[in-house]
Amino acid sequence: MLFANFDINYFIFGVMPYVALTVLLVGSIARYERDPFTWKSSSSQLLRRKQLIWGSVLFHVGIITVFFGHLIGLFTPLWLIDALGVPHGFKQWMAVIIGGVAGVAALIGASMLLHRRLFDPRIRVHSSFMDILILALIWLQLFVGLGTITLTLEHMDGIEMVRFMTWSQSVVMLKLNAWAQVVDVHWLYKFHILLGLIIVMLFPFTRLVHMISGLALPFRFLLRPGYQLVRSRRQQALPPRKTARQRTNPAE
User: Fold this and answer.
1) d(C-alpha 246, C-alpha 252), whole Å
2) pTM of the model
3) Residues lower than pLDDT 70 in the chain
4) CATH assignment at residue 63
5) Please, which contacts does 119-127 make with residues 24 or more away whose CB atoms are closer than 8 Å?
6) What pLDDT score does 29 carry?
7) What sign for the dihedral angle of Cα 162, 139, 144, 61?
8) Which domain holds residue 105?
């Protein structure tokens, strides 16, 4: 049979990471070039402002902490951790404590934002399907991520953590056998990774693209200090602006 030797683990952990990264890169560039005016968060802050503020602060502080925690935790080379003398068990505890607190904050914030978007008729009517879908997926991802903490507490020696680090870094290094590192982990971990890859693939087609603007903005202003960066639909440049004297004396 055609799919007799098909291995879902190979597809998810060996193929999907590259598909997700390709869609993220190509999709983001294409959207920025074709629809630059959709490159925004489309705020609805005038409606139910208090709930938005609390939900947004909790969500953004929590999700940014979780994101960079995963980034540093997964992609810091093992040789560097060992060279610094950081025990794997200590790193595991730090991940559980910091990630747990940040995850709870982000989940509460996401719950407030999702409730606001679903149950306020004025906000619901201005919410697209993708707005609701991506927020719901992030909520589920946070919930599942907190659920994996109970599994992590059963092996605080850091062995499972090392497996995920090896897989992540092997994917980046284009090692084709990277998927074998996570074949035997608990299904909840696998589901957590799968949800993450799906969110990455949906990223360019949702309001999440404003995250890239937030990360890139300081560098753009360093390159062009003192300017407000605006993209225009004009095909030709505007004529030179007249000075005050020229406006007063058009004959000059």
Assistant:
1) 6
2) 0.78
3) 1-6, 36-50, 213-235, 237-238, 240-252
4) 1.20.950.20
5) 120/47, 120/48, 122/47, 123/44, 123/47, 123/48, 126/44, 127/44
6) 87
7) positive
8) 8-248
